[in-house]
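The pair is set out directly below:
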Amino acid sequence: METSTIDDGLTIAGVTYNSRLLVGSGKYKDLEQTRAATVAAGADIITVAIRRVNIGQDKNAPNLLDVLPPSQFTILPNTAGCYTADDAVYTLQLARELLDGRKLVKLEVLGDEKTLFPHMPETLKAAEILVRDGFDVMVYCSDDPIQARLLESIGCVAVMPLASLIGSGMGILNPWNLSLIIEQATVPVLVDAGVGTASDAAIAMELGCDGVLMNTAIAGAGDPVRMAGAMKLAVQAGRQACLAGRMPRKFAASPSSPMAGRAA
């Protein structure tokens, strides 16, 4: 997508997008449902697992780009399924060739198959290589403020801490760590992994996140297209609430209609 004309867009690596909701492209029943949900979500950026989704690697299989063309959407290749820095780097170099040299990528290096928790030493190693190679790296990471700071210092263009385990739908389990990451960051912070429903997305945005990335929360819903629309509204509402500033919490009641000045 080209530069947005709205005032409150999400800017990553110098490009501004209309939507702060990023969505995945896996787990849908077919490509038609993938497109319908993506459109309902109002997403500009679509993340694609290069090891699992065909964007041209297999000339004889259905191609995601036929329903989500790069002329209309920003395709964000990711390294889902990679467990070493070397595998992740190779995967994204392949993606760059398939997508005509596009630099924006999502890095994730997993620690094990059970938790899908990020392997941070390998993530840092891969990030250094990719940034040196000219990639604009958005990076999935633990909700550790120190790790997030290191990734930013390497030159990553966005940090993406997990809210809870990938695909768990458990929501934001540690809002305090997220708040610390947001407070120190000078690049966008996007929640990645763990969102289960619209209220989770709204909470992430209310905390001050710049955006939310999700896949299973939409694709795994009973009605993915309707859930995609709900997530769009939740992200918008949470962003507006963050900008507005919530009322202070108090330990005493305060009537909506004050009694002072009223006639006896």
The chain has a mean pLDDT of 92. The radius of gyration is 19 Å. Helices lie at 31-41, 85-98, 120-132, 145-154, 175-184, 198-207, 216-219, 224-244. The CA atoms of residues 202 and 235 lie 5 Å apart.
